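Section 5: illustrative case.
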């Protein structure tokens, strides 16, 4: 089953989402993400998936998913669905950000 609720992943994923949001905002993207002060992205039709980040600039839409290395495999179906949605529209791109494991 594909997870459709807003992001509630690992602490590592949440930290990386905040970092990516800051970077995109600095590049003048209009950003939606489950981060304090921003609105949560809308569910993508027809999948019902709520992406980690949706950023827009000049009519282009960037969907960003943030995963830990182990989360990529667990989210295979979700990522495949998002890739298919992005492939169907010329104005949508999908970016997968994989976090680095923390050094102990």
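Designed sequence:
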């Amino acid at each position: 089953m594909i997870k459709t609720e807003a992001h509630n992943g690992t602490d590592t994923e949440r930290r990386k989402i905040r970092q990516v949001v800051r970077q995109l905002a600095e590049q003048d993207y209009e950003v939606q993400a489950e981060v304090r002060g921003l609105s949560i992205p809308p569910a993508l039709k027809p999948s019902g998936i709520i992406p980690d980040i949706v950023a827009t600039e000049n009519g282009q839409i960037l969907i960003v998913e943030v995963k830990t290395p182990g989360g990529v495999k667990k989210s295979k179906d979700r990522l495949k669905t998002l890739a298919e949605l992005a492939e169907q529209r010329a104005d949508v791109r999908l970016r997968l950000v994989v976090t680095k494991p923390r050094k102990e």
